[in-house]
Amino acid sequence: MRRKVAALIERARAAGAEPDAAVLDFAAGRADALPESMTDPWIIGTAAEARSRIEALKARGVDHLMLWFMDAPDTDGMAFFMEEIAPAFR
After folding, report:
1. Cα separation of 26 and 8, whole Å?
2. Which of 24, 27, 40, 55 has the fewest CB atoms below 10 angstroms from its CB?
3. What is the pTM of this model?
């Protein structure tokens, strides 16, 4: 996960943005938990955490999601989602 967050930081910086300190601390290993700035608006974490977050959204009435995978244009994240998370919602 840290490797993927570090790659996201690189892309943000290339676009002229500077991630917040908590994101930088997580990527550098100075913090163990993903920062709230990522976990609050995003579905991120282990497969179990992602399924739990989606269930919570469903309970609040959400019936559609627009997904963006932080490793794009690679497809590993999408494949992981389709294999480990999506089957729980079919």
Report:
1. 12
2. 40
3. 0.74
